[in-house]
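Example record

The entry below shows one chain as it appears in the dataset: sequence first, then structure tokens.
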Amino acid sequence: MRVETLAGIIGAEFYTGVPDSQLKALCDYLIHTYGVDPKHHVIAANEGNCAALAAGYHLATGKAPVVYMQNSGEGNIINPVASLLHEKVYAIPVIFIVGWRGEPGIHDEPQHIYQGEVTIQLLEDMGIQPFIISKDTTEGEARKAMGEFSLLLEQGRDVAFVIRKGALTFDQKVEYKNNYGMVREEIIQHIVKISGEDPVISTTGKASRELFEIRAANGQSHTYDFLTVGSMGHASSIALGVALQKLDTKVWCIDGDGAALMHMGSMAVIGASAPENLVHVVINNEAHETVGGMPTVAGRIDLTAVAQACGYPNVACVDTLERLDKELEAAKERRGLSFIEVKCSIGARSNLGRPTTIPVENKQNFMRYLGKLK
């Protein structure tokens, strides 16, 4: 189904969401149609943020907004759906558009398998009525579903279009780019060189995939790394948990701007805990690149100022490899919590692979390695 057709059927005037590769056609359509126009389209920090923003829109207009997200974001909306939107509370109608990663019977990455199994059940448990859109869903079927949804929305109920792989199309090409010169894979190569055999916790998406391939190309062990292939936004908290228990070991976190924004409160906890052995590196390409390239708000805020305000005593922002090496080496040598923001271009190798070990193996190998450290 063409995404313009679905948008016309829904008839909403306001969209907010977190980008998803399964919803790339929708994301490209929204950028092509609205750009990032707060009046009509807001790319939010996390899915719970979207639900609350949608509630505010409804309070101000009386209209039903759209929240789009990957199904992994269902966990982030449980609280606002159950305690804000639900008909037993404020009865605020929202139309969710959910990308169905890990759908049973469709091959996907390990972090999506269980989430895919419970996607429909979770929606129903939250009182959200789902309708599944496939490649062969007709316009008539979608209109009929929206007609039934309209009755529920009038009652303050929430509904969801669940999008199967390849179900939506958009013909217009949308290009995402910035003006930075450094490439993320090269940045991670420099982190790997200077961190040596220190443990590294990397964020979800292409950063972890690149880290895995860099270790393989270097002939190095993968035991040094914990690849946070799911759970977006939580790599820095995992790194904090490790650092607080291994105080004599330098611990590195390779984070992304979208992930750092998603659960930014973790930076306040890290700053307050102030582990002297943690280095938090945020590679900032101002984009949700792994799922298509839509922009984040990280290009409009000062992440180093945020880190400093959260209590990080050592902060830096770099945009060249020379400055990067200088800050990485200083962080390696000092006793003190460090934060390094690295400005980065958008893009990755077209032949970038995925980790060949399963998550449980990664965990076991990483734990064995940590067991040897102080």
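Notes for this example: The longest strand covers residues 278-284. The first helix runs from residue 3 to 10.
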